Amino acid sequence: MTEVKKNNKKKPVVKSFLGGTILTDERFTRQLPFIGLLVFFAMILISNRNWSERTIRQIEAVQENLNELRSESITLSARLMDASRPSEVVEKVLEAGLGLEEPVRPAHKIVVKKK
Length: 115
Fold this sequence. Notes:
Layout: H1 2-9, H2 13-19, H3 26-30, H4 32-83, H5 86-96
């Protein structure tokens, strides 16, 4: 008999869920603040994940841009080093026809005595 009473006391969960009467059940309404807290935490978790993914995409874009700029800098540095070699400078001066000549003697310091 106790078994039959237990079964009679239980309300059919599926029927009350589909019928909407579960929302008026006291056990459910007592848990509403906790469910609201869980929903709030879920919203924070979702927004934090979206923010993190957006930040990661921005970091990847900046890294790609940095790599491009680094390679461009290395290329320009190599070109400048090549163009500033003394033999290249002499060749460009001769091509431009500036009339400059290479010094035969090394440079020396000019000292002026004050009176």
